[in-house]
Structure formats: C-alpha cells, structure tokens
Write a structure and sequence with these properties.
alpha+beta, 8 helices
Length: 255
C-alpha cells in the first residue's frame, strides 16, 4: 500500500514539473534589454515579484566589475519573457573588507535624491583615507559628498545617474568626481558607491536611454558642422572643361 502511494506521489511530482515553462529574464531598457537569467513557472502570474541578482561583469564582460551586484525585480511578462525593473546595486562584503584596512578612516553617508524623471534614489558612498583623520575633517568630507550627490542626482535622469554610478570611465564616474572635489579638504585614497537603492519609481517609465551607450563628447558635438553652416560655405572656383586652358592672369605692372 505504501509503495502504491509513493508511486502516485512521484507521478504527481513529474506532472507538476511538466506543466512548468521556462521564461527568459530580461533587463530594463537602460541595460540594453540584456538577458540576465531564466526561471520556471507553471503560471505567468507567479513570475511577478521575483527578484534576480547578477554581477555587473555578467552584463559588461569587464572582470573588474565582478564585485558589483545588480538586483532586478520582475514586474511584467509575455509568453516567453519576464521583464524587470532595476532595484539597485551593492558591493560584495569581501571587496569592502579589502578596502578597509588598519590605520585608515572609512567615511560613509546616506543621501536621498530625486532624479529629473521622478525616481527617488538612496545613495550610500564610502570614502577611505590612507591615514586616520580628525572628525572635523570627516564632517567636511561628508558635507561635500552630500552637496555633490544632491546637485548631480537632481539634474540627471535615472539612466544617466545609474550610468555615472556604475561606469568605470573616470571622466564620467560620480565617485571620481567626489574624490576630485574632496582634494581641497583631504586627499582620499579611494571612493566607492557602496550601495544604491531605488526607493520610488514612476508608474510608467518611457525612458529609452541606454547606460552602456557611449555619450558623444561635447567637443565633437560642438565641432560638428550644421547643415546651415555647410550651405554657407564659399563655393570653390570651377575648373575649366577638359581641353580648355585656364585664362592667364595679367602680368604685374613694373614701375
């Protein structure tokens, strides 16, 4: 009798797995709609609310970003895909431990900003000095970090701010800007954005910005000629037809 019950339960388990379907998990538009994983579900509605975590290395292929963890939440689905929303990022505990060594000062802060397109984001920077510094200097550094993050965050869209937080390009990095601006107070050894959390998002996001797209440098954009400027260019002198010699210029008059 027990054997029949076991056989019946195993058949139910097999049938339950057969009813499930694989769905590809797709990142938001700002991450170029990259595939970040797969998940099983017997009903599409059960996908909603699930979270997935990947590293920035998985999306960019840059091994230097393996310590950056990205978190996404499934908010919609189609017949074969699950669509996500970006929840934020975090750094691995091993990476943070390697940066905070003895005889150094670690300064952290928690700052909330509202982006230009209506997102409320919480940023948690981490600044590390090469020596121990006084509390008054730490206060000035935190004050400078707060003003910079508020100024930059409120003037950027969510995609632009995320790009500045996650990029490895020093010319566009938010942490590099913080490190540069704090030199007048105390030269910092390293600045990292330890955590980023999306606290509130608009109901409908129509942004199509891609954070991995390389922006056009301002110098190149300013140097690019406009169509009107091209039309205003002076006309080049016409070349004489083939077989016809150009008219000779009059010889200069000698005094």
């Amino acid at each position: 009798m027990a054997r029949k019950q076991t056989t019946r339960d195993s058949k139910k388990l097999k049938d339950k797995w057969k009813a499930k379907q694989w769905y590809s998990i797709v990142a938001p538009e700002m991450f170029n709609r990259a595939k970040i994983g797969e998940t099983l579900a017997d009903e599409p509605e059960k996908l909603l609310g699930r979270t997935v975590e990947v590293t920035l290395q998985d999306l960019t292929g840059d091994f230097r970003m393996m310590h950056v963890k990205l978190k996404f939440k499934i908010i919609d689905h189609s017949t074969s895909e699950a669509y996500t929303r970006f929840l934020g990022h975090d750094l691995t505990s091993d990476y943070i431990r390697r940066q905070t060594r003895r005889k150094r000062t670690k300064m952290e802060g928690v700052f909330d900003v509202t982006t230009k397109d209506g997102y409320t984001v919480r940023l948690k920077p981490m600044a590390i000095s090469d020596k121990r510094i006084q509390s008054s200097v730490q206060y000035e550094i935190r004050k400078k970090m707060a003003s910079l993050i508020t100024e930059v965050g409120s003037s950027k869209t969510m995609a632009q701010l995320t790009s500045m937080v996650l990029t490895s390009d020093k010319d566009r990095s938010l942490v590099n800007l913080i490190q540069k601006e704090c030199r007048g107070i105390y030269p910092l050894k390293r600045v990292d954005m330890r955590k980023m959390e999306v606290l509130n998002a608009p109901e409908k996001d129509e942004s199509t910005e891609n954070i991995f797209a390389s922006p056009v440098p301002e110098e190149e954009a300013s140097e690019a000629p406009s169509p009107a400027a091209e039309d205003a260019k002076p006309e080049e002198p016409e070349t004489p037809p083939v077989g016809e010699e150009p008219a000779e210029e009059p010889a200069p008059v000698k005094e």
